[in-house]
Amino acid sequence: MREDMLTIGAFAKACRLSPKALRLYDELDLLRPGRVDPDTGYRYYAVAQLERARLVAWLRRLGMPLARIRQVCALRPADAAREIRAYWAQVEAETAARRDLAGFLVGQLLAEPRKDTTMLELRYFAHSDQGRVRPANQDTAYAGPRLLAVADGCGPAGAQASSAAVEALRFLDTAELPAGDVLNLLEEAVRGATEAVRDATDADEGDGTTLTALLWTGSRLALVHIGDSRAYLLRDGALFRVTDDHTVVQSLIDEGRLTPEEATTHPQRALLLKALPPAAGPATVDLRLRDAEPGDRYLLCSDGLSSVVPDARIRHLLTTAQAPDTAVHALVAAANEAGGPDNVSCVVADVVEGEAGPR
Q1: How far is CA 76 from the centre of its chain?
Q2: Number of C-alpha atoms within 13 angstroms, CB side, residue 25?
């Protein structure tokens, strides 16, 4: 045996992959041995292969699927690093969603019966504005006692797409909510919205819509989100964004290839990665549950607001407006003062104690 070759056992020990794993990776053409004895079939590996083998071992420890590992190993180091960063951003996003669900389940199992009888309700207002540039309004905004929703249509039938998506969810405003998992109910409702959008539009023309909605359960808000409309929470004077944009530029930010500042002027900043209806298969939406506290103020908006009004300005307007309708009108006015390049839709809802309704 040549000095630069290692037996499969020695190679496995050096790269911390088991001989069984090495045989599998050979079969998958992921890590071929440097030499196979023609008589015994015994595998030998070159010392120079250790670097690739260790990379495979590390990526497996990250939980990366073998098919994606093969892609990473075929890239140049800089490109491979970006791919690993993108994978980990995806893992963190999925973990956050599962963490929210796990926290909800733990809370449900350990929660003691409430000793107080304080009822929480929503006070809400919705408005959609054409803006100063677009020839028509393709946004749809809705607010009711249980359901808050914003949809931003695109394509020739964008208005029909956004309207169909929101209309398909409106039954949630009056339907009896199940005692079980409200997220399942929302997920099923999105399937209906997807079909409604398909029926109302022409996919070949690029018609579609974003959808961001909150469903009030009486103590929690269930979120469903796809696209680049947004949901914000104002709590104790601090503004939190509770959705992630499903856009090309957001993926580049997550991969470390763009800064948030660079993204604001990127030529593809409005290019969506996800929308309704999806290009193929079921819609992959973000689903989360959030506990509500008295004094919380939620904002749903299309990108006609968030693309031209900075978060700091949004926080100021939400903080200073006394009522939801005042806040909505101030936000829409701010977007139009910034040029109004797009339709702008806003829904503001306050979590309050006692009887409440639209204002």
Answers
A1: 29
A2: 28
Cα 72 to Cα 52: distance, rounded to the nearest angstrom:
10
Hey, what amino acid is at 99? R
How confident is the model at residue 64, as a pLDDT? 86
Q: In this predicted model, what pLDDT tens digit does every residue of 83-98 receive, in sequence order? A: 999 888 888 877 776 6
Q: Quick check: bond before 358 cis, omega within 30? A: no
Angle between helices 50-62 and 66-73 (to 10 degrees): 140
pLDDT digits (tens, 9 = 90+) for 348-357: 999 998 754 4
295: left (phi over 0), alpha (psi -120 to 50) or beta: left
Q: How far apart are CA 157 and CA 162, in angstroms?
A: 9
Say if residues 193 and 242 touch (Cβ distance below 8 Å).
no
pTM, entire model: 0.68
Query: 122: which strand partners?
Result: 351
